[in-house]
Amino acid sequence: ETGVTQTPRHLVMGMTNKKSLKCEQHLGHNAMYWYKQSAKKPLELMFVYSLEERVENNSVPSRFSPECPNSSHLFLHLHTLQPEDSALYLCASSQGTEKNQPQHFGDGTRLSIL
Amino acid sequence: SQELEQSPQSLIVQEGKNLTINCTSSKTLYGLYWYKQKYGEGLIFLMMLQKGGEEKSHEKITAKLDEKKQQSSLHITASQPSHAGIYLCGARGGSNYKLTFGKGTLLTVNP
Q: Is residue A84 classed as helix, strand or coil in its secondary structure?
């Protein structure tokens, strides 16, 4: 699927760096999500935006800061990360947040913290 | 909070064989989603099941939802190497937008 595009695909950063992950959806959806996928653990929902408003902040540390400037774009700003933050970060979008709307995922950003 | 348990955790089959993957929820299912993931890549949406007894098929993959048992099964007929990957089930509990996922089932299909 190319409906949800994430950049960069891979990112290596030091603990003191500041970087941003970008997600863009071309599906006309109005809800976007950030998930974290760590080895041998289920996907963890981090943030949900519906109509550009944050509707879910799943007890995520403040070193992760999301931004949704419009319904097509979602960012995840990173600063002062820890080694345990190394993971695959996945963005998803859906047409609304109703129960019958599936979420469509991007290919993720593989993040490695040195 | 809702938890999803997938079984088996991993599966190796010979090409052409049939297989079944199960997903069991700790709470009532309000919708069940099946996804496939290639290692290090995103999730590809396969199917969504909403009603008890519902069954859907896409090519050689069939999924069923047994709402009373809070369980769903994914069945692949005549498996091919292209079916290899990680199969994940996701479900909504009472929340509109929060999807809870299982840990996944790693499928290997040997030619």
A: helix
**Test the A interface: residue of B24, B99, B105 with most A CBs within 10 Å:** B99
Token pair, residue B3, equals: 């938890």
With an 8 Å Cβ cutoff, are B97 and A100 in contact?
no
Q: Which residues of B touch A104 (CB under 8 A)?
A: 45
Give the residue from B91, B56, B48, B98 showing the smallest Cα distance to B75: B56
Instruction: Say how far apart CA B60 and CA B75 lie, in whole Å.
Output: 8
Give the chain B residue nearest A47 (alpha carbons). Answer: B98
**Residue A26: C-alpha distances to residues A2, A4, A33, A70, A72 (Å):** 8, 6, 14, 12, 7
Tens digit of each residue's pLDDT (9 = 90 or more) over B62-111: 999 987 878 999 999 999 999 999 999 998 766 666 788 999 999 999 99
Task: Look at A105 and B30 and tell me if their CB atoms are within 8 Å.
Answer: no
Question: Which residues are CB-contacts of A61 (< 8 A; sequence separation ≥ 6)?
Answer: none
- Annotate B38-47 with b (16+ C-beta within 10 A) or e (fewer): eeebbbbbbb
